[in-house]
Amino acid sequence: MTRVTTRVLDVATAVPTTPLDPGTVLLGAPEAGSRALAAVSGVEVGVWEMTPGTATDVEVDEVFVVLSGSGTVTFDDGERVDLRPGSVVRLRAGEHTTWVVHETIRKIYVA
């Protein structure tokens, strides 16, 4: 019989944040940061946080699940997604987005 070893990824780990580039900030003084948790077949799994405020971004290919916090992400085509714990969102490389964070967002991502 083969023994399977399970490793736990600690999504509660501290995530260091730094101020966002002032050229991307539309409102407030948001900070963001991430911490990689694992790499699987060239795909990164990690935790990301953004503190309250509004900022623009250009995305990478990613799927994420919101663990805590609240806000919205709006895409250039006008689609708006409300973010709350349990929200699952697909981002595509090159998409331009606007993030409005009301309560610090923490998400786990696969990119």
- What name does the CATH topology of the domain at 43-110 carry? Jelly Rolls
Unreliable runs, pLDDT <50, ≥5 residues? 1-5
Q: Which word captures the global form?
A: globular
The secondary structure category is mainly beta
Protein name: Cupin domain-containing protein
Organism: Nocardioides pinisoli
Domain (S)-ureidoglycine aminohydrolase cupin: 43-109
InterPro entries: RmlC-like_jellyroll (IPR014710), RmlC_Cupin_sf (IPR011051), UGlyAH_Cupin_dom (IPR008579)
What report would you give on this structure?
This protein is globular. The chain has a domain at 43-110: Sandwich (Jelly Rolls), CATH 2.60.120.10. Residues 1-5 have low confidence and may be disordered. Strands 1, 2, 3, 4, 5, 6, 7, 8 and 9 form a nine-stranded antiparallel beta sheet that branches. The chain is mostly beta strands. It starts with 17 loop residues before the first strand and ends with a strand. The chain has no helices and nine strands. It has strands at 18-19, 25-27, 31-40, 43-50, 53-58, 62-75, 80-83, 88-91, 96-110. 0% of the residues lie in helices and 59% in strands.
